[in-house]
Every structure is written in structure tokens, then in C-alpha cells.
Amino acid sequence: MLRVAMAQVNSVVGDLEGNVARIREFLADAEKRGADLVVFPELAVTGYPPQDLLLENGFVEKNKRALEEMIEGNTVDVVGVVGFVDRKGKSLFNAAAVFQRNEIVGVVHKALLPTYDVFDEDRYFKPAKEEEIAPVPIKIDGKTVRLGVEICEDLWDREYDVKVTDLLAKQGADMIVNVSASPFFVGKTLERSRLLREKATENGVPIFYVNLVGGQDELVFDGQSLAVDKGGSLIAVGRQFEEDLTITDIDLEKGVAERVEAPVQDETAEMFGALVLGIRDYFRKSGFRRAVLGLSGGIDSSVSACIAVEALGRENMIGVSMPSKFSSGHSRADAERLAENLGILFVRFGIQEVVDSYHRTLEEPLEQIRAHFGASKEEDDAVADENIQPRVRGNCLMDISNRLKSLKILVLNTGNKTEVALGFCTLYGDMAGGIGVLGDVSKLEVYKLAEYVNRRAGKEVIPRSVLEKQPSPELKEGQFDPFDFDVVSPLVDEIIENRRSKQELIEMGYPREAVEDTYRRIRNSEYKRRQATPSIKITPKAFGIGWKMPITNKYPG
Description:
The chain is an alpha/beta fold. It is built from 16 helices and 20 strands.
């Protein structure tokens, strides 16, 4: 029997010393638990993705030195596989080192380099050549094990000519380990497990898939490492959204191990867990301790507050209500009630005086500009009056963060994906913040999250009135959101995530008028999104580093 430990660690990008220390801890724990082999995620030494740190003078050399020093001082009698960045001449490689005690017995380079969505590996790395793909022989209890080592995308070979898993199996690999840094999106777990079962069954070889865990900027890595035997049966599952050392005993001669039950999938629960981890790690890794957000009494800010409390603790949350003359009594009451239910600090102050001061201050200069260009006041855009309010609120939140420096407060943005897509948000106003909680969550999914929060708590944390009232920005009398979100929310998802054309959407049954209006709004709002806060990514296609749309764009769709 071979005892395999899957070590899903939470590496911090650039923290070479801290990452190596964490690897050492897991190595020692694996030895205590009798492991013969311990496998770490992709680029565990540097953190993933290191992006342009790879171009910094000395970074790659320091990552190699950190790895070498760790291995040279290693006394743990366990075979280890760990991801790092290798250099050969001027070329960089996404690599995995195989080591035993204080000796490196093999180095494997990644063959398939993803360059799509959030991935940009072809910018930095060279791929392994096909003829270099081969198992690494290791000695365990005097026996030779032919260990197939592949790195993340090497498993996802459908769109590539080189089939790394198949090649390793053909060359006699007794087992395959995949060191991975695979970002989460809703439904990704099922994709991974299907692929693992397929590859293991086709090749008759057990596969251990070890995934990174943790948040890095807008990306979330969910862990949940998986292992399947040669027949594709599930034999190990790591915890989701937390570090874990998962131990599995496998009979390599037969290629089988004791089966385990697949975890029950709850997409809304997964979404909540991913957002919590993303927010928690963004704060922890960037040095912030507390969060402040505007509490309007609406659904978005209510759900954002609940996620933030789960991530940071109620003692580190500040909810701020900033009513104007258009803010309704029920919204004020709902905001205060939510804060009470969450047990967070609640602060309220009116902004109408500041809004009126804006008007007075700008009255004369605006008139001068109109006179110079021959424009009349009747031609003014009335929306400007509405936009002053969120800009005042955004400024106030930023001042709290900026002024109370010692408290390490960061502003949370609460805008949802549907409204950000449509441009139904105010630049330098309600788009302000250091990190977006719901920027990749559609409006309909926000409501599902709200129901989940209350169901999970077993009580009404988010007041029922928040879920039932018609959404409104309350920036003028009698105002409500101008969308049927039952239509527009999934329509936006089809355009953004599935790249549907207008004609396709109309053929799918969406009203032509809604399709034309939604397309126009999305195209016209690109300049806003380019200046938006980063948001936690939970779907296959999010705004942010994986969204590369030109601002100046005349394509009609």
C-alpha cells in the first residue's frame, strides 16, 4: 500500500519565505501521518498567479533558492512534489520538483500553457517538449514507483494536440499526480471530477489532483483536491475553501483504494463560500482588518454585509446609512434592522446638506460654461442631479477608510454583475471601493444568496421586506429600477458568459427590444467597467482580468 497525502495549501503570491514555511509544516504533518508521498499545488512556492513578478529582477532566482534551501535542509523521509518556477537559460518554465529527503530526483515542466480568460501563461513560460514528457522514477520502501507528474492544464487537453496524461500512462506511469491552481467558478467541481474519471478510466491509472486553495486578488481557488482510482471511482476529496491534508491509502499494484462519497453540491452554498474566502483573503493578504460599506436597505448591500461579516467577523464591520431626502422610511429601517441582526457597528448621517452644497458650488461655473458654448440649462442631463448623491456617499466612505488609517479599513463595493454590465451605476460614486463583493453575481443570484443566508442562519437575518420590495436607487421621487430582472439578469449572463449574438438571443425567445437595449447598454458602459473595483470571480466569465473588450467599439453584435 502507498499512502498519499494531498496538501492543498493557501500560498501568498510573492511571499516566498512564508510559502516555504507552510510547505515545511505540511511535510512534517504528512510524515507524522505516515505518508509516503505528499503532493503540493502548482507554483506553491511563488503563489499563483505571479504575473509580472516573474519579470522582476531576482524573483525567479529567489524562488529557486527558497526551494533548494528547503530541500537541502529537509529531514522528512517523504517523497514530495511541489510547484515552483524554473529557469533554463533565458526561458522560464512552470515546473514541479520531485524530491526525496534533501535531494531533487526530478523536475517536470508544464507542457500545456493556458492563455485564455484569466490565464496568460504563454506571456511568461515556455512549454515542455513532447519528448520530455515521462514518468519520474522514485523509491518507496525499496520499490520503484513510476510517478507521472503533470501540471494543471496538462490534464485539460481536449483543445491541444499533446495529450500529457495519455503519454504518461503509455510510458508506464503507476500513478499520476496533477499539481494544480484551478480557479473556482460555480460548477467547476463537477467538470473536474468528470474529467478525472474519464482520464483515469481511459488510461487505467489512478490520478491524484491537488488544487491550490485561497483568494488571490479577484480569483478564488477552492481546494477540494480529488483522487480517483484506475476505474474512475472517487477515493479522496479535500475540503472546499480551506487548507487540508487529505490522506489516501492505495494499492498501486491493483490501482484501487477504498471509495468515498462525493460531496453534495449546493451551488448557492458554494457561491457563498467562494465569496467569503475571496473577501477574507483579500483583506488578510493585503493587510486590511476592517470593512466599511454603505447600507441602503436594499438587497445588494444587505447580502454584501452578510458575506463580509462571515469573512471578517462582526467586530470588524461598519455599516453606514447615508440617507438623502429621497431615501424612504422603509429603507432606513431595513438598513438599521439588518445591522442589528448582524451585530455590527451602525452609523447614520444625512447627506442632503452636502448634496445641496454641491449644487450651490457648481451653479455659477456651470452657467459660465453654458454661456461660453451657447448651451441652455434646459439641455442639461437631469441624471447628473441623481449622480451627485452616490458620489457624495462614495466620498464619505472613502474618507472613513482614508482618515482612520490606524484602523486599516477598506471600502467594500456592493454592486452586482447585472447592474455593472448595464452601466446602472455611478462612476466615482457607488462604484467606489477597494474590492467588490458581488461584481460577478447576477441580480437573481443575489436574491438566492439572501434566501441562503436566512436559511443557513435559521432565522431572518436579512429582513423579508428587503427581499420583497421593488428595487430602487432612491435618487429621485417615485424611482424604481427600470428593468425586469427576471428577463434582463439571465440575458446579461448569456451575453457575457456565453457570448450570445443578438440573433441567437432572439431565437432563444428573448424580446428583441430587451436584447437591443441590453446590448447597447453593455457596449456603452465599457469605460465604466475599466475603472471599476476588482470583484471576486465566481463564474466562467467575469469582468476583470479575464474580460478584454475594447472601450471604443462599434461592433453591433
